[in-house]
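Appendix B, Record 12. Input sequence as logged:
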Amino acid sequence: MNIKKSRLIIVEDEAIVATDIAMRLTELGYEVVGTAAAGEEALALAERVRPDLALMDIHLRDAMDGIEAAQEMRRRLGVPVVFLTAYSEGATIQRAKLAEPLGFILKPFEDREMEIVIEMALYKSKVEAALRQKTEELQARNNELNRFTNLAVDREQRMIELKRELNGLYERLGEPTRYVIVKVEAEE
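Logged structural output:
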């Protein structure tokens, strides 16, 4: 029993191709939560439905192509992208890399190929999200440790100053000083 509930959107400007991909994804067990034919439309859709992954054609008919849409989708919404395209020339691939896709599928493709790339992309996306969360947690702990260290150093500095003042007071009163102040050099 192969149950997948990952939510995907399809960004493809050819309606027949988008419908075919949606049917194939549904048969593979994915939930297709929307399709878009243009870059701006894809961004609005992704913002509204918050998919787990976007399958994005590189060449779209409007002003914003799939690469630009993927870059914005990842930057603004954190939605990972897999490119679906018939174009594989070097310049396109180099430009597509800038969008940091989690996969690249050349048309025409087989269902199994699409499924493998999607599964790897979803897994990598989850790993990246967990890594980001751990990094944020470690950064928060580090910030707290730095704050605590600064408080401890400030407290120690105030104690040294207080001991110096008390020693000075004892000296003015003609009594022996009571506090020894040892300056600890930082280890290198």
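The first strand starts at residue 7 and ends at 11.
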